[in-house]
Amino acid sequence: MNLPPKVTKRAFERLSEIGAATEGKALRVAVEGGGCSGFQYEIALDEAKEDDLVLTGDGQTVVVDSISLPFLANAVIDFSEELIGARFVIENPNASSSCGCGTSFSI
To answer: Over the stretch 25-66, which tens digit does the pLDDT of each residue have?
Structure first.
């Protein structure tokens, strides 16, 4: 069964730390063609659009466009802080493989 993506509390907390909602912005997570594995994630601060799926928590918003939604079914949107840097990450059960950068995947 395909469920919409989930957003972790850590991801919503990071959005709050950077003040996304106070600027009227949401975290947009999209899937685009390209990257070294066929598809890549596009993650940016943006405004919600009419056909977006809107996910909210802690006063923050994450949006996914309707075209990207099937690629992100059952995925988890998280925030990771490691020695190599801090970033939003996608744990996507639909990806059959991904590249080392973590932003490119194939289905």
So the answer is: 999 999 987 766 578 889 999 999 999 999 999 999 999 999
The CATH number that applies at residue 48 is 2.60.300.12
* Domain with 72 in it: 6-106
Whether the full predicted model's pTM is greater than 0.70, yes or no, is: yes
Domains identified in the chain, total number: 1
- Are 29 and 90 in contact by the 8 Å Cβ rule? The answer is yes
Cβ–Cβ under 8 Å, residues 90 and 75: yes
Residue pair 60/45 in contact (Cβ under 8 Å)? The answer is no
Token pair belonging to 55: 């996910």
Is 1 part of any domain? no
Terminus-to-terminus CA distance in the chain, angstroms?
Answer: 17
Report the candidate in 103, 85, 20, 81 with the shortest Cα–Cα distance to residue 55: 20
Alpha carbon separation from 63 to 7, 37, 41, 88, 96 (Å, rounded): 10, 24, 13, 14, 24
Structure tokens at 8: 């972790």
